[in-house]
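Morning, I've got a small favour to ask if you have a moment. I've dropped the whole record in just underneath, so have a look.
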Amino acid sequence: MIAKVGEKAPNLSVSKWVQGLPTNIDKEKDNVILVEVFQVNCPGCFLYGIPQAIEIYNKYRKEGVTVLGVATAFEDFDKNTVENLELLLADGETIGETLKALGQYGQLVQGKKLPYKIPFPVGMDLLKKEDDTISQEKINEIIESNVPGFDAYSQAQKAEIIERVKQYLKSKQYSAKTFEQYALRGTPSTILIDKKGILRDVGFGQNEFLEEQIKQLLAE
């Protein structure tokens, strides 16, 4: 089942809590929950997403906000691994495109390390090895989640979209359960859940309204 805004938020599917005590949505009742979803090999996650989540954590953790991190993988499966996540959390060590981009912006210390520590619990998304079968059901699920108004497209446009989805599925080695269950479009992404455990918002990329959304949920 795909998570829907306005309905009860499903628990995160985590293969391993790499940092912090194991927890989940149903264990954080009465708190506003922010889930920051990122990839280890994602420069934007460390330029925007993670710093913003840390700021929220520092400002609101004593006000009833729980911040959780979920490292996922929908591409670059050789880099977005639990082993690289462990290095990142234990020693601040960056890799791949993250290392390259943050280095260019002068945001690393000792050549390849983050200048800050992620202070909240972080888990690794549950990855499942894909088989080689590309079913119509899989194609339809991806289109439904990512292409609003698909039925309004021309036949030629529909065929092009379907072919692109097929090529994506052919290159996909794993499915990431939390990423797919919340129908995320990429990283960084944010998942906002209210005090009653209801999913209130799913965001992608930079979110300049995130703090305001947090304040509104705390006031409810």
